Amino acid sequence: MTHAPSQRQRERIAYRRRQAIRSVLLAALSTAVAGTLLAVGVTGAPGWPRVKESFFNGDVAVAYFPSVLDGFWLNVRLFLVCAPVALALGLLIAVLRTLRGPVTFPVRALTAGYTYSFRGLPLIIAIYLFAFGIPGLRLQGTPDVVVLGGAAIVITYGAYLAEVFRAGIESVHPSQVAAARSLGLSHRQAMRHVVLPQAVRRVTPPLLNDIVALQKDVGLISLAGPVDAIRAAQIGVAKSGNFTPYVVAAVLFILLALPLIAITDRVTLRAARAQNAGA
Asked: Which ranges does the record mark as transmembrane (predicted)?
């Protein structure tokens, strides 16, 4: 026996379909109007020909695209390494900060001092300190500036991510930990099987936002000297006297960020729907 929707239900479905089509058409129309007005306003400005020549020169873009792309590969590799390491460091610090008992007070004090310090320290200064200060100690086995700059990014972002993880851990009601302990689970098992799965799920949207910010800030590695996309663009600007290589680098960074931003928006929307459904 097949289910046949009632007349009232068919009318409701048809109404929702008409409303969805109407919303899409209105959004497309308003976007087209806003885009046209913006394009007319920018291209009609008195200084637009000079700006176009200085920032959107096609010949300069084609000439310096290969060198900027080569440098951009360094940014991609740095991001692929720094992001998971910073997440692991942040989670470790968050777990250590949530330890209980007087015996673990030194650990909590050290982790709190770490998060306070590196959340207040500008990333640019951290990169300078790591890339130029540590080699000055003349220790054997000192890594190159790319590794030191990446370490500065990881440690700085680890402090931010630790606070996000800690907020998620503390959002889990203590009764759930007590229930897990009453079932015979140790503190470590309760954290692993009860607290952390819920905490990570709750703070996934802000975590992804921080990862998007990290993806942009890997470009600051150019301050330490390596030729990444920004440094390559800077060299191109110096040679050509034109700012178009910066625009080429910006487009590459945006293209890299778009998938992660889309995932962040989707996860945030799903979390909001789940919260509304549970409310």
From this structure: 20-42, 78-99, 120-139, 145-165, 243-263
Residues 7, 132 within the same domain: no
Residues 126 and 7 in one domain: no
Domain annotation covers residue 49? no
Q: Are 221 and 65 in contact (CB under 8 A)?
A: no
- 24 SS3 class: helix
* pTM for this model (two decimals): 0.80
- The domain in which residue 21 lies consists of 1-37
Question: Which 3 state secondary structure label does DSSP give 144?
Answer: coil
Name the amino acid, one letter, at 117.
Answer: S
SS3 content of the chain, % helix, strand, coil (to 5): 85, 0, 15
For residue 44, tell me if it sits in a domain: no
Number of domains, the chain = 2
Same domain, 181 and 124: yes
Q: Of the candidates 76, 122, 31, which has an alpha carbon nearest to the alpha carbon of residue 257?
A: 76
Q: Does residue 45 lie in a domain region?
A: no
Report the distance separating Cα 34 and Cα 16, nearest Å: 27
b/e map 217-250, b = 16+ CB within 10 Å:
bbbbbbbbebbbbbbbbbbbbeeeebbbbbbbbb
Side chain identity at residue 32, one-letter code: A
Please answer whether residues 123 and 219 qualify as being in contact, where contact means their C-beta atoms are separated by less than 8 angstroms.
Answer: no
- Residue 77 CA to residue 229 CA, distance in Å, equals 12
**How confident is the model over 8-60, as pLDDT tens digits?**
888 888 888 888 888 888 888 998 999 899 988 888 888 888 888 999 999 99
Residue 23 maps to a domain: yes
